[in-house]
């Protein structure tokens, strides 16, 4: 058994694994800011991480036998890793900013840009990964020198402690450290831990170290010779390849069940590593007693492949399990940890059997070579071969298998590779019937692989269900017309009754109806206005850049206008553009118009490479809880994007209010305000906002509709827009009014390096919360925006169609309907076109509804509601307006309505009585006084309660015509 120092080294190696996975997690965050897609960044970090570790392990295998004190060498390497972590953030900023400013603009082709970007990322992280790769062979050799009789136990225990520490590091980074310290602080904390670890190791190393273990054959416990060594080095490579095919495919699969958020990714990564750790823990007490380790290794590989095939069926059931848990959990903050815990359990259910077996392979293969007389160098050689296989698996899965054959068959291919490897290894065992065992294994394995590949499971309808949002494994969303597993996401198009949606990893990105005779979807309002609003604000705009393809409708709308001469779209996932073809003929112009260009790359590198400046830059990605999307809403992104706007240019961005909250919205708006001179927020529908920002001056007002642009006007009429005021009314406020609102919430500015939104948006998605502050500010009973200069006096002239759901438009449309019914003596309130106006009209058409000191509570509430609904309906006329005083005819008509006291019709403000009540008199039509029209509601001249008069004052904007008499006449019963 290990002595006390060896036990301490096990604990220290767990800390090393903890910091190592913090590095991997944070590196993926840094690099996706430069590479663009989160999936590319994660796969590259995995490949670079493993590549550097492979090289480091190989170098350690070459040098370890010549080192007298392996533990001291290990300690100094941990110290070097810590120092590199302390300076990583500054190095990243210096190199990436220099590249964006100087290098990328000088490169000619997208291919050259990509090569340079990945090379720079390798320069940033490979030196540290090379050092990390040396740690396992050096510490393993040092521990084995202290206990050669239990070499297998020590190897397995080191593998377990390092892996379990890594699993904890992934969770700590995701759920604690990045939110607490930010990315730079997290890197520095990990670096400090490495330095402390190095100090402890070097203190132990000063006690001395036994001599290196001689490379000698162990007496028949395992076959020896170069053929066996080559076999197990090749097996280490192949099993690493298969294991990382599993990891990449499982993470993509589980993203469709758990959601593709940052938290979900770290939960899946933690589950994968924990499975490896548990396999190493299980084998540690058995590895030294195996009579035929080669046969055991072959069986492990075969069963690992079979377990991987079984995960496809388990994964199929996870959709139902997720639907069940969402049915029993409440959607609130307290349940979010339970949701993540259950997601972690689902990841374990899918990954654990195969990863448990995979965790045995590295210690097992290394032990076989040690018994075969390879000495300490076997540790580094096996580790290097395994990590090189991991690189090959990542590249094969991302760039070949998933795009070519899809997730299910990619996993089957990985399982078949493991089964074939197992049968190959079985042929070298010491068993007399080894050929029969190998033949049986290959037959059973290939039959299982074929049956799994042909099994009628994981149909596209299930994969695109978005169960993590809707809580249904088989929702009635209609059939799937398109499905493709791309390099970065799985894209589907499905729908029914003429309405189609394009979904990314089960999340709907855009929905529209193909039949023009059917009303538009809510997304159509946003997509149409994203393309139309810039042209209405800046009709002379010629050059457009569009980030994200979506359905293609925004590009279609922009191209329906004759003004734009070029629309360049930057899209990271080719499957998205292919899937949007399903929306034909609604988006044909986006594909066929010569002005439309599509570039498949990251937006940041595209802008840096081309260096073009655009009149309009549109940004369509909007679900900020999706891993990587929040990087388009940071202060650094806005700072860089502003550089590519032409003078007077507009930046227009789609932003969701649903699955969000006001603090997160404030964080984004604050980031925008830091970099743009002015912005204005428009509501496109109750769940979607649109931000228009300018680098200089103020955001211009929308111009009149271009009636001569028939195709463009057709797109606007499709969403119910026929007059220019129907655009302007959607404005919720500008920077001067909205900025202080969010400043009061105290939300930090969303930053690449302190990614508040990326960390917190998954929680708001689970809660189903809504960012309502801006809409409620615009619709508040008190004229807050009016008082701060946030409105422009634009009002509807007639109601809008009922399918237009924008709140400002619905409010004004309701007010117009109330005014119409009240002005028409014969109008029936029950036949009002606005359903929300009916109870208000029923109360207000009743004479003297508010008479008395204590009017009915329901009547007062309806009056309040009427004030809220109608306040924005008309501008308040000044007191000097012509005909603002009440006429004699009005006074006579009013006195006839009062049953108790004569009216006191005067030009004074309402006077308060001794008991605090007010008298309903006939004031001027001004913002400070009660309109004459209200005299017949409360019974002119009759005292009413103070609450009632305050409510009535909110109806001041009903004084809409030249004289009070003209309006007042509409209140007769």
Rg from alpha-carbon coordinates: 35 Å
The unreliable regions are 872-973
Biggest sheet, strands in spatial order?
A: 7-6-5-8-9-11-10-12
**Overall shape:** elongated
Beginning-to-end CA distance, first to last residue: 98 Å
Question: What structural class do helix, strand and pairing data support?
Answer: alpha/beta
Report on the biggest sheet: 8 strands, mixed
Number of DSSP-assigned strands: 14
Can you give a write-up of this model?
The protein has 973 residues and is an alpha/beta fold. The strands form three sheets. An eight-stranded mixed β-sheet has the order 7-6-5-8-9-11-10-12. It has a four-stranded antiparallel β-sheet with strand order 1-2-3-4. It has a two-stranded antiparallel ribbon with strand order 13-14. A hairpin with a 2-residue loop joins strand 2 and strand 3. The longest helix is centred in the N-terminal third of the chain and has 55 residues, at 151-205. It is elongated, with a radius of gyration of 35 Å.
Keyphrases for this structure?
34 helices; 58% helix; 973 residues; alpha/beta; four-stranded antiparallel β-sheet; eight-stranded mixed β-sheet
Fold topology:
Layout: H1 4-35, H2 38-63, H3 70-86, H4 88-106, H5 110-146, H6 151-205, H7 226-258, H8 262-283, H9 293-328, H10 336-371, H11 377-426, H12 434-454, H13 460-463, H14 467-470, E1 480-485, E2 490-496, E3 499-504, E4 507-513, H15 522-537, E5 543-547, H16 553-559, E6 566-570, H17 574-579, H18 588-592, E7 596-599, H19 603-610, E8 614-619, H20 635-642, E9 645-656, H21 662-675, E10 678-685, E11 688-694, H22 710-718, H23 725-728, E12 731-734, H24 735-743, H25 756-767, H26 773-778, H27 784-787, H28 807-823, H29 838-844, H30 857-870, H31 888-897, E13 918-919, H32 935-938, E14 943-944, H33 946-953, H34 964-968
Parallel strand pairs: 5-6, 5-8, 6-7, 8-9
Antiparallel strand pairs: 1-2, 2-3, 3-4, 9-11, 10-11, 10-12, 13-14
Helix pairs in contact: 1-2, 1-5, 1-6, 2-5, 2-11, 3-5, 3-6, 4-5, 4-19, 5-6, 5-11, 6-8, 6-10, 7-8, 7-9, 7-10, 7-11, 8-10, 9-10, 9-11, 9-12, 10-11, 11-12, 15-16, 20-21, 21-24, 28-30, 29-30, 30-33
């Amino acid at each position: 058994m290990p002595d006390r120092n060896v036990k301490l080294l096990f604990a220290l190696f767990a800390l090393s694994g903890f910091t190592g996975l913090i590095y991997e997690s944070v590196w993926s965050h840094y690099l996706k800011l430069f590479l663009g897609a989160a999936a590319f960044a994660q796969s590259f970090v995995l490949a670079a991480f493993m590549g550097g570790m492979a090289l480091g392990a190989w170098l350690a295998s070459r040098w370890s036998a010549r080192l007298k004190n392996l533990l001291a060498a290990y300690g100094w390497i941990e110290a070097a890793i810590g120092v590199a972590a302390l300076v990583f953030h500054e190095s990243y900023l210096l190199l990436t900013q220099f590249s964006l400013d100087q290098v990328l603009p000088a490169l000619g082709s997208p291919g050259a840009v990509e090569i340079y970007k990945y090379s720079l990322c390798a320069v940033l992280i490979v030196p540290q990964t090379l050092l990390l790769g040396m740690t396992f062979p050096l510490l393993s050799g040092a521990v084995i020198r202290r206990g050669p009789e239990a070499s297998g136990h020590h190897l397995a225990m080191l593998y377990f402690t390092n892996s379990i520490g890594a699993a904890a590091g992934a969770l700590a980074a995701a759920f604690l450290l990045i939110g607490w310290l930010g990315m730079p602080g997290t890197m520095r904390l990990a670096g400090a831990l490495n330095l402390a670890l190095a100090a402890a190791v070097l203190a132990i190393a000063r006690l001395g170290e036994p001599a290196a273990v001689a490379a000698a054959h162990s007496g028949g416990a395992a076959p020896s010779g170069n053929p066996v060594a080559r076999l197990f080095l090749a097996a280490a490579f192949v099993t690493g390849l298969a294991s990382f095919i599993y990891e990449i495919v499982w993470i993509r699969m589980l993203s469709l069940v758990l959601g593709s958020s940052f938290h979900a990714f770290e939960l899946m990564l933690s589950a994968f590593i924990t499975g490896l750790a548990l396999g190493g823990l299980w084998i540690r007490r058995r590895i030294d007693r195996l009579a035929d380790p080669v046969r055991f290794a072959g069986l492990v590989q075969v069963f690992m492949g079979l377990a991987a095939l079984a995960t496809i069926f388990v994964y199929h059931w996870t959709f139902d399990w997720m639907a069940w848990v969402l049915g029993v959990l409440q959607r609130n903050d307290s349940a979010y940890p339970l949701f993540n815990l259950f997601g972690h359990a689902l990841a374990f259910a899918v990954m654990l059997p195969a990863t448990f077996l995979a965790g045995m392979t590295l210690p097992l293969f290394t032990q076989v070579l040690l018994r075969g007389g390879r000495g300490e160098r076997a540790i580094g050689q096996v580790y290097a071969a395994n990590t090189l296989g991991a690189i090959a698996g990542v590249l094969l899965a991302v760039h070949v298998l998933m795009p070519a054959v899809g997730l299910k068959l990619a996993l089957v291919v990985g399982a078949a590779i493991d089964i074939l490897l197992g049968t190959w290894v079985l042929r070298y065992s010491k068993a007399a019937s080894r050929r029969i065992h190998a033949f049986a294994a290959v037959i059973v394995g290939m039959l299982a692989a074929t049956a799994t590949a042909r099994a009628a499971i994981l149909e596209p309808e299930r994969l695109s269900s978005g169960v993590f949002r809707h809580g249904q494994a088989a929702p009635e969303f209609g059939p799937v017309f398109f499905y493709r597993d791309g390099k970065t996401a799985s894209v589907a198009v499905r729908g029914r009754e003429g309405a189609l949606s394009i979904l990314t990893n089960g999340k709907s990105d855009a929905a529209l109806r193909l039949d023009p005779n059917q009303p538009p979807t809510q997304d159509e309002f946003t997509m149409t206005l994203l393309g139309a609003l810039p042209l209405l604000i800046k009709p002379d705009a010629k050059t457009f850049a569009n980030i994200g393809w979506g359905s293609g409708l925004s590009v279609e709308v922009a191209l329906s206008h004759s003004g734009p001469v070029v629309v360049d779209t930057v899209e990271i996932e080719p499957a998205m553009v292919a899937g949007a073809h399903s929306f034909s003929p609604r988006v044909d112009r986006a594909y066929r118009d010569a002005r439309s260009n599509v570039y498949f790359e990251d937006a940041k590198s595209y802008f840096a490479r081309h260096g073009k400046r655009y009149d309009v830059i549109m940004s369509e990605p909007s679900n900020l809880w999706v891993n990587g999307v929040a990087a388009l809403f940071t202060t650094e992104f806005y700072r860089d994007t502003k550089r590519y706007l032409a003078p007077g240019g507009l930046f227009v961005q789609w932003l969701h209010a649903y699955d969000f909250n006001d603090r997160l919205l404030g964080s984004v708006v604050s980031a925008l305000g830091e970099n743009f001179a002015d912005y204005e927020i428009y509501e496109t529908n109750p769940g979607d906002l649109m931000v228009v920002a300018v680098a200089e001056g103020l955001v211009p007002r929308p111009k009149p509709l271009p009636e001569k642009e028939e195709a463009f006007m057709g797109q606007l009429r499709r969403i119910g827009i026929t007059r220019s005021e129907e655009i302007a009314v959607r404005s919720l406020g500008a920077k001067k009014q909205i900025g202080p609102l969010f400043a009061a919430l105290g939300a930090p500015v969303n930053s690449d390096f302190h990614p508040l939104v990326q960390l917190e948006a998954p929680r708001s998605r689970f809660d189903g919360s809504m960012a309502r502050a801006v809409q409620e500010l615009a619709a508040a009973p008190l004229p807050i925006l009016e008082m701060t200069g946030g409105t422009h006096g634009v009002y509807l002239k007639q109601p809008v169609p009922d399918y237009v759901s924008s709140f400002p438009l619905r409010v004004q449309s309701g007010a117009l309907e109330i005014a119409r019914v009240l002005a028409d003596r014969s109008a029936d309130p029950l036949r009002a076109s606005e359903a929300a106006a009916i109870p208000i009209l029923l109360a207000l058409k009743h004479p003297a509804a508010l008479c008395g000191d204590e009017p009915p509570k329901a009547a007062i509430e309806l009056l309040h509601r009427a004030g809220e609904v109608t306040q924005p309906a008309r501008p308040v006329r000044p007191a000097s307006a012509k005909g603002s005083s009440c006429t004699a005819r009005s006074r006579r008509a009013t006195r006839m309505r009062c049953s108790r006291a004569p009216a006191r019709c005067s030009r004074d403000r309402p006077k308060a009585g001794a008991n605090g009540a007010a008298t309903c008199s006939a004031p001027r039509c001004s913002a400070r006084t009660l309109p004459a029209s209200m005299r017949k509601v409360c019974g002119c001249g009759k005292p009413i309660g103070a609450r009632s008069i305050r409510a009535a004052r909110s109806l001041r904007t009903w004084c809409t015509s030249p004289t009070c008499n003209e309006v007042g006449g509409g209140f007769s019963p």
